[in-house]
């Protein structure tokens, strides 16, 4: 019978939080995973969400053992924590690589490097939290390229008067860089369209038809049009189901921007339940090809991330939620040219 020995050590991670290190020795397989699951259960029940698993003395790892880590990582990350694994042998690392777990849980050579990564992650979460506060418009902002100081009148697509870089600025003052264009602000505003629909699943087809006509008029390729329609459809479906719980009397606001020879931008606003949990799972790498097909939630956001070039989600108490998605397209657009900027960026 396989044996797994576990030693737990608790220490201070920073001023506010503690770190739990599990020193594992032996085999992690079908017979020992109940013991490992119990260890994680105890940590979660005791509210230890920052965990390092030391694999230096692990001789064997099965897919069942990997399943225990995947089982708990969601709950732990939703509580602003993480699981990091250290001192993995080449033999065990091969198992991780085949399972694709390195996309979900990071491996580190030493405890010191893992702690540094965890502390850096905590700092990034704090900065993100402070950045989610609403900005009082108008406000002064500095162009990150030419340092020109300008007054920002409202959340919108704006163009720096000096260097002509184009940005989207949301209600939290968060800046998303769009591609540079020689069009004036007047021309940009010409390509802005807005829709207001009820939170009713039956209206999704109307939005799809509107998008199809709009993008065909602009001679956007069929491949890019299909990507945009799919992403918007998934976004609206998630809002109707998860933000509004299929209640049909609420409102969803949509704004479409077409930057000629550059990109398509859509913002979707609602006042329903925040979807921050799913977006956090997406950006943490929890929603990807290695997630079991029977997982109930998150597949829609995986599709959005795969079809769009940028996703930006903000949720503010007493204001609501705003999802921004960007899709770049080639400067020369025709039915046979399906080239596009395929770089992926999820920024929040």
What does it look like?
The protein has 348 residues and is α/β, with parallel strands linked by helices. 34% of the residues lie in helices and 29% in strands. The protein is built from 9 helices and 16 strands. Helix 1 packs parallel to helix 2, helix 6 packs antiparallel against helix 7 and helix 7 runs antiparallel to helix 9. The protein is elongated, with a radius of gyration of 23 Å. The C terminus is likely disordered.
Would you spell out the secondary-structure blueprint of this structure?
Layout: E1 4-12, E2 18-28, H1 33-45, E3 50-61, H2 63-78, E4 82-86, H3 90-99, E5 107-108, H4 111-131, E6 139-142, E7 149-152, E8 156-159, E9 166-169, E10 175-178, H5 185-190, E11 192-198, H6 204-217, H7 222-243, E12 251-259, E13 263-270, H8 276-283, H9 299-307, E14 310-316, E15 320-328, E16 345-346
Parallel strand pairs: 2-3, 3-4, 4-5, 14-16
Antiparallel strand pairs: 1-2, 6-7, 8-9, 9-10, 11-12, 12-13, 13-15, 14-15
Work out the strand percent.
25-35%
Instruction: Kindly report how far apart the N and C termini lie.
Output: 48 Å
Strand order of the largest sheet: 11-12-13-15-14-16
The coarse overall form would be elongated
Kindly give the count of domains: 2
Number of extended strands: 16
Question: The CATH topology of the largest domain, please?
Answer: Heat Shock Protein 90
Mean pLDDT: 78
Unreliable stretches covering 5 or more consecutive residues: 181-188, 287-297, 331-348
Count of helical segments? Answer: 9
Please give the share of residues in helix: 25-40%
């Amino acid at each position: 019978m396989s044996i797994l020995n576990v030693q737990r050590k608790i220490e201070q991670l920073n001023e506010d939080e503690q770190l739990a290190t599990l020193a594992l020795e032996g085999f992690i397989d079908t017979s020992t995973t109940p013991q490992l699951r119990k260890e994680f259960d105890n940590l979660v029940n005791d509210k230890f969400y920052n965990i390092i698993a030391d694999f230096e003395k692990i001789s064997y790892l099965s897919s069942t053992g990997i399943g225990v880590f995947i089982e708990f990582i969601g709950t732990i990350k939703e509580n602003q924590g993480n699981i990091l694994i250290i001192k993995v042998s080449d033999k065990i690392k091969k198992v991780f690589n085949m399972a694709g777990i390195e996309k979900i849980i990071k491996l580190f050579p030493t405890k010191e490097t893992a702690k540094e990564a965890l502390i850096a992650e905590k700092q990034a979460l704090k900065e993100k939290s402070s950045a989610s506060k609403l900005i009082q418009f108008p406000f002064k902002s500095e162009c990150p390229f030419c340092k020109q100081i300008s007054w920002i009148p409202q959340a919108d697509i704006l163009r720096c008067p000096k260097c002509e870089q184009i940005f989207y600025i949301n209600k939290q003052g968060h800046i998303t860089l769009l591609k540079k264009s020689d069009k004036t602000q007047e021309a940009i505003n010409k390509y802005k369209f807005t829709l207001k629909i009820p939170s009713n699943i039956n209206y999704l087809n109307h939005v799809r038809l509107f998008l199809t006509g709009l993008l065909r008029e602009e001679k956007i390729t069929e491949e890019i049009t299909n990507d945009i329609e799919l992403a918007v459809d998934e976004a609206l479906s998630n809002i109707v189901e998860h933000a509004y719980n299929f209640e049909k009397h609420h409102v969803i606001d949509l704004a479409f921007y077409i930057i000629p020879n550059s990109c398509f931008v859509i913002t979707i606003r609602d006042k329903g339940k925040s979807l921050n949990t799913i977006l956090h799972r997406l950006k943490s790498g929890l929603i990807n090809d290695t997630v079991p097909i029977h997982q109930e939630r998150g597949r829609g956001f995986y599709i959005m991330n795969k079809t769009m070039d940028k996703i930006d989600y903000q949720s503010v108490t007493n204001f609501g939620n705003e999802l921004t998605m960007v899709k770049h397209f080639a400067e020369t657009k025709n039915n046979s040219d399906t080239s596009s900027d395929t770089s992926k960026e999820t920024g929040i």
